[in-house]
Amino acid sequence: MSDKFEKLNRLREEALLGGGQKKIDEQHAKGKLTARERIELLVDAGSFDEIDMFVKHRSSDFGLDKKKFLGDGVVTGFARIDGRPIALFSQDFTVFGGSLSEAHAEKICKIMDLALKTGIPIVGLNDSGGARIQEGVVSLGGYAEIFLRNTMASGVIPQISAVLGPCAGGAVYSPAITDFVFMVKNTSHMFVTGPNVVKTVTHEDVSFEDLGGAETHAAKSGVAHFAYDSEIEVFENIRKLLSFIPLNWKDKSPEKEFEMPSGEQGFNDDLTIPKLDDIIPDNPNKPYDMCEVISLLVDKGDFLEIHKNYAPNLIVGFARIGGISVGIVANQPAVMAGVLDINASSKGARFIRFCDSFNIPLLVLEDVPGFMPGTEQEWNGIIRHGAKLLFAFCEATVPKVTVITRKAYGGAYDVMNSKHIRGDFNYAWPTAEIAVMGPKGAVEVIFKRDIDSAEKPEERLNQLLNEFIEKFANPYIAAERGYIDSVIFPRETKLKLVNAFQLLKTKVDSNPKKKHNNIPL
Ligand code: HXC
Predict the structure, then answer these.
(1) What local confidence, expressed as pLDDT, does residue 260 receive?
(2) How far is the CA of 57 from the centre of ligand 1 (A)?
């Protein structure tokens, strides 16, 4: 018996070494952690339960029959994060550069199937040279099996990808389908074709980092939702992200006990926040920072911003209000006056759809002058992309609350979770300006003749402008019709939100039955 136990011990030790100590040292020399070190840092201590430790590839071409490693380049299993279950896989670069063989793909598929059946999130730690070249089309088939499962799991369980090394060619499409992508500056790269192919095809000289590094994808392409300086920060923030979201589409996000706030956020005992009354500048064209509003409103100022560096004119992220996890979508007047452009629209739409898939209520903070004008935006499809944002808000059946802090002009008023598209509670601050268009543009259109024929056109324009502002640039016309449920002092906002989200916990709403919708892509 002891021999048999000894053998198991020996095999386990062999598997734990992956591609061997030399390869582990090389991995460390590149500033990267090993597959198993990563798991240890990500999950609750001692909670990792590995499966398929002894899987080997079945290939014999190119001398592969003499080169086999237990686990075949990916570590898979279950674990807990903050006591809640997850499934995970972690690619092991020390084995054939983490490349994906048939067996490697089968391991990932098995863990994905189990995650889907048990209704728990899947976290993938990617570090791979791509398709195992020696296995040819079998490896491509393996990728396709993973893509199919990513798609089937979409909207059923949360899927999180961390790209911690190379991720190239078609391999990028698995993380791309998942809900959130984390990258590490300088060590992770994602691209469909690398710098050499780019040089040949387009004659561009570009470095790995510029082409597909973390900052590129976090700021330019929007492929990455998060970019951090180190792997450790990636793991901390995956843990934080999971704390806001449910295990699956039927589950609810963990609710935290709401501690009545102390003085640090400027609260009074009755939940009023006097500081909020001072946020909006007297001059309606002056910017202010919506992040300040968010940090005052959310419990303990705790906010996980997503896509922070991409389309910063729209802020999205998770927070808690009165202990309830919510997704915040907020215009940022401090960046391009908070205008909605192509990138902001698709960023917002994808986030809203995640929240709606997973029962996470939405809070909209609105200060938007409209959609971005210009040929660049029109020719690249602001109509198509803006429609995504509108569609996402319209179809969402989760609790939806809007607070208009200042501007709500034109189509953007409708789009940003207005009453008409099923906003449950729509509040406006007294500083709100709700109208078809900004006062100057409006007056120049409807009073063009009047102004042109006036003796002093400039004076007449100003007179008409003041009349228009007085009459239309306020929240009361919308409130008269019930489009705004209540005009509130900014300081009352937290109280209103806590009450609204508590009340809406039992909200039930649905969409007509269909195969699936056809969101404008
Ligand atoms: C088999 C691979 C491999 C691969 C790396 N290795 N990539 N083995 N298939 N795809 C092996 C190397 O031979 C080496 O083995 C070990 O992994 C480490 O690789 P190095 O090159 O020494 O590491 P590094 O210098 O860090 O470079 C990493 C790399 C480079 C940038 C990823 O290895 C590379 O360019 N690999 C090829 C990438 C690629 O073209 N993949 C196919 C993409 S197309 P030894 O034994 O020497 O240690 C694709 C299609 C997917 O993936 C389609 C899905 C639809």
Answers:
(1) 57
(2) 16
pTM of the predicted model as reported, rounded to 2 decimal places: 0.95
369 lines ligand 1 (CB under 6 A): no
Q: Dump pLDDT digits (tens) for 19-50.
A: 999 999 999 999 999 999 999 999 999 999 99
Which CATH number among 3.90.550.10, 2.130.10.10, 3.90.226.10, 3.40.1180.10 corresponds to the domain 264-437+474-505?
3.90.226.10
Does residue 393's CB lie within 6 angstroms of at least one atom of ligand 1? no
For 2-244, CATH number out of 3.90.226.10, 3.90.1150.10, 3.40.50.150, 3.20.110.20 equals 3.90.226.10
3-state helix, strand, coil in the chain (%, to 5): 45, 20, 35
pLDDT digits (tens, 9 = 90+) for 104-142: 999 999 999 999 999 999 999 999 999 999 999 999 999
Selecting among 155, 194, 222, 411, the annotated active-site residue is: 411
Residues (pLDDT < 50) of the chain are none
488 to 297, 321, 337, 462, 497: CA distances (angstroms): 14, 18, 23, 29, 11
